[in-house]
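Quick one: structure tokens for this chain, please?
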Amino acid sequence: MTRDRRGLSRFYRLSSSLEITPAELDRRRREGPAIVLLDCREPEELECARLEPCVHIPLRQIESRIEEIRSMAAERDVAIICHHGRRSLIATRLLRAAGIANVWSVAGGLEAWSRGIDPSVPEYTRHR
């Protein structure tokens, strides 16, 4: 599949109010500590592929750890990543509803990162 300059499929419809592109995440990470990466996948998924540094909080724990995330977001913007971008979008919506405005889902997730930004991060099939 062909990727565009954003690191996404050319058919991907970006929700710019909730998502950032893999290319934007890459740029912001290279610029310095202005953004923290929160990985909302399950622990066994981290064994397959991961970006470092990151904070790991599975989606099922997001609501119970909102205050921890609020503290992170007080210092820096938060980018949330998962495998394809679906769970990170759910997490982003939950956190926005809790009043944390500076959180974004990484569009296309780790798969888009691996295919469009850094092929050294392995693609994987999610464990069930």
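The chain is about 35% helix and 15% strand.
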